[in-house]
Design brief:
single chain; 175 residues; alpha+beta; Translation Initiation Factor IF3; five-stranded mixed sheet; two-stranded antiparallel ribbon; 5 helices; 29% strand
Length: 175
């Protein structure tokens, strides 16, 4: 299973679900450029929560060629090359011998800051979260109070904008 990182908390929860809920043997986390540190953070949290996880890190570069086609005749198309740095973190319970010999291999850690999660403790936590979600009720826009949701108004062009109360202007005077 491949996880691509944007929202850290959701991806940690998804990783725990894959390991405990679906009994997956490995999870691969991929990220590029600015999201690399988030991917490493997610991997580290998972390593500290799931017992006996081996980590294999692989860093690669991907060549991307952007082609700009002219809209007018007689102009030349422009090609621009750029390189994207991509990290791939594999967390596995049973690594192969090849993975153990890889330069990015890290053996499992002993949990220093607390206890590892077990399948039973994870299931108890999932039940508690489900109960809290049921108590909150559905989270639809019509169910929230007006002040949280903000008033919706339409502009001349038919675009929807949000009126958050009061005008906000930079520079200029208020009449």
């Amino acid at each position: 299973m491949v996880i691509q990182c944007l929202n850290i908390g959701r991806y940690v929860a998804r990783g725990l679900t894959l390991f405990f809920g679906e009994d997956k043997q490995f999870v691969t986390i991929r990220a590029a450029e600015r999201l690399i540190e988030r991917a490493l953070w997610v991997a580290e949290v998972l390593r500290r929560k799931v017992p006996e996880l081996h980590q294999i890190i692989n860093i690669t570069e991907k060549k991307i060629v952007d082609v700009f086609m002219p809209r007018e005749e007689g102009l030349v198309k422009v090609e621009k090359e750029r390189y994207l740095t991509v990290i791939e973190v594999t967390l596995t319970r049973k690594p192969t011998e090849e993975q153990k010999k890889a330069p990015g291999y890290q053996a499992p850690i002993t949990n220093v800051g607390g206890e590892f999660l077990t399948k039973e403790s994870w299931e108890i936590g999932e039940k508690e979260r489900a109960e809290r979600r049921e108590q909150r009720g559905p989270r639809r826009e019509g169910d929230r109070p007006e002040r949280e949701r903000g008033e919706r108004t339409e502009t001349r062009g038919g675009d929807r904008t949000e009126n958050r109360g009061g005008e906000r202007r930079r520079g200029g005077r208020r009449d």
